[in-house]
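re: that chain from earlier
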Amino acid sequence: MNYINNATLIKRELMVRLAKSINSDDIESINRIPLEMAPKNGTAVRCCVYKDRAVLKYRLMALLGHSIEDETDELKPLSVYARESFNREECTAPILTVMDEACSSCVKNNYFVTNACQGCVARPCIMNCPKNAITMVNDHAVIDPEKCVNCGKCMNECPYHAIIYMPVPCEEACPVNAISKNEHGKEQIDFDKCISCGKCLRECPFGAIMERSQMVDVLKSLKSDRPVAALVAPALVGQFSSEWGQIISAIKKLGFDDVYEVAFGADLTVEHEAQELKERLQAGEKFMTTSCCPAYVEAVKKHIPKLEPFVSQTPSPMQLTAKHVREQTPNAVQVFISPCVAKRSEALKNSGIDYVLSIEELGALFVAFDIDVQKCNESEAQQTGSNDGRGFPVSGGVTRAIEHFAPDTLKDPILIDGLNSKTMRELKRLPQGFNGNFVEVMACEGGCLSGPNVICSPRLSLKNLNKLLTREEKKETAEMMV
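^ sequence. v structure.
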């Protein structure tokens, strides 16, 4: 689904309203947000405004960092949840939560005959169905879901294109079959299978799947006496259609004391990973895969254990940057700003990162604090990265960086551009061997620029990123000529 839709806009408005309430220390006003967004005489999005208000309340609970599944008292006010958020000492897993109130219980049947069916004499759908799952009822084809095996032959054979494929969007998007219906027909996540890729969250048309946000924890830290450092993912570069230095200034206006480019950590990752690859090949190993995508690493651990010995042991750019920040400012609260859901899960397992703020949440804070990024003066980050490190969020960026750092090391590298059922099967075959010696894996098609928490179209953000990379390359060339 497109990165921008009405469900996403509602979520972002909730983020802005919640941030404003917290920033003004008016916790009680959070209780009124559902009523203000779904007024009594307004037009309902669902069956009625009361259902809309219930869903808005649950979405706010998730934005306050709570799991909807843990609710025990439906009358508990949002302000109480907010105070609990302020008082918690640490964030916990799981990262995702499902609102059964918002879930529409999508029909499970994948192939459906529409009213475009002409009841033709040829009957190609019936004649070509291998399971005799189609019959004619009142001159209209009908599919028996008990017999259908979802082969799709009927859809391909129909001359009127009257048969369509109707997936359950969240289930269809999940590359590891971690989400399915419970006994009530509502979706639930099996966290023993889930890899926190966020694909279900992005694809649900009803906004029924949410992240448990850490925005409150970040705002609390910004009001504390401890220094707060922002570690910004390379994917942030292209998100706000403004100069990179302006984005850094805008982040500092929020109250962050320092800003570090995680592209710096990406440079360290390239150096370590290239050396690790050489050592592995010299030791007689067949190949190595990247390790910077936490959703992929989790997918290997939970679903492809035979591939785990081939995964690089090099820490991710986020972890290496966090280590550097800890050495510079030991008592700093470290906040990673990310386009990725899985980074929250990685951060919970990595003591270097305190909180993760999504790019969507960062944009909401800019709006809530009345910060116009395009009007900010430019400033520099505390630690910057090279063009190789800044190219990490684009699929193929890691491979290009290693080729640049260690030429003649790679042989026929493979790029897995996005995790889905097909690429998961491809990954499961890798331990058997292939012609190359290096595999780059990105959970999101196109790379981190297409992550579930971006606010800019991947195409435009790639254009903005390339603009910065070109300018930096020219600047570096000019300095070398002086």
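The CA atoms of residues 110 and 166 lie 5 Å apart.
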